[in-house]
């Protein structure tokens, strides 16, 4: 074992490798009340090498259940202080090159996958006693901080842009703006088909 108490381990060149036996873990543990980040990767480093990542996880499971390549368990403890904002994951993106494609989160089904995943994103409220107000919340802090499309589902290979089942679609003075069908905020409806057929059928 290596025990460091109130000190640093400095490596000026070469790799830092930790080889663990099965059943062992590499643990980073602060004191009872940390006052700084427990793990910091990079200090303003800027890479010019394609494929060089800040953190890379290569992990697989065989015949396992409830395993994850990255498992985060965050507990917002009860206090009587002012209202705070806390996050399970906080990501800040700074795009200084307009011509690049920059995504806050990129999820990909591997090209040699035997079967497709059940979903790219799975939201689950496991607490039956508490209702979560929104599954996804889009925020706009100011008039100049715009989001053009909250959801863009224009890709040709999408079967259903949205599937609501028997759930209710709720809105106020929303507008529906299709090429041949429009509903303005006051509820007035325009049906203007550009092909032959019945514009409206009530059965």
Describe this structure in words.
By secondary structure, this protein is mostly loops. Helix content is 0%, strand content 4%. It is built from no helices and 3 strands. The chain has strands at residues 176-177, 181-183, 189-191. A 3-stranded antiparallel sheet has the order 1-2-3, with no helix packed on it. A hairpin with a 3-residue loop joins strand 1 (176-177) and strand 2. The model has no long low-confidence stretch (mean pLDDT 89).
Q: What does the secondary structure layout of this molecule look like, with pairings?
A:
Elements: E1 176-177, E2 181-183, E3 189-191
Antiparallel strand pairs: 1-2, 2-3
- How many helices? The count is 0
Query: How many strands, which pairing sense, and closed or not: the largest β-sheet?
Result: 3 strands, antiparallel
The succession of helices and strands, N to C, reads EEE
- The unreliable regions are none
State Rg: 25 Å
What is the overall shape? elongated
The order of strands across the largest sheet is: 1-2-3
**Average pLDDT, all residues:** 89
In total, the number of strands is: 3
How much strand content do the residues show?
under 5%
N- and C-termini, Cα separation = 77 Å
Q: Give the structural class.
A: little secondary structure
What is the helix fraction of residues, given as a range? under 10%
């Amino acid at each position: 074992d290596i025990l460091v108490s109130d000190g640093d381990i400095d490596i000026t060149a070469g790799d830092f490798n930790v080889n663990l036996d099965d059943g062992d873990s590499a643990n980073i543990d602060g004191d009872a009340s940390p006052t700084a980040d427990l793990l910091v990767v990079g200090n303003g480093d800027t890479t010019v090498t394609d494929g060089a990542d800040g953190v890379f996880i290569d992990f697989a499971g065989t015949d396992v259940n409830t395993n994850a390549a990255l498992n985060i368990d965050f507990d917002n403890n009860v206090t009587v202080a002012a209202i705070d904002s806390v996050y399970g994951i906080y990501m800040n993106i700074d795009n200084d090159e307009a011509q690049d494609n920059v995504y806050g989160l990129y999820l990909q089904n591997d090209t040699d996958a035997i079967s497709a995943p059940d979903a790219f994103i799975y939201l689950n409220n496991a607490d039956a006693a508490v209702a979560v107000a929104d599954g996804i919340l889009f925020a706009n802090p100011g008039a100049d901080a715009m989001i053009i499309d909250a959801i863009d589902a224009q890709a040709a290979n999408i079967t259903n842009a949205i599937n609501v089942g028997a759930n209710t679609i709720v809105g106020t003075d929303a507008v529906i703006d299709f090429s041949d069908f429009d509903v303005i905020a006051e509820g007035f409806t325009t049906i203007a088909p550009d092909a032959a057929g019945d514009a409206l059928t009530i059965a």
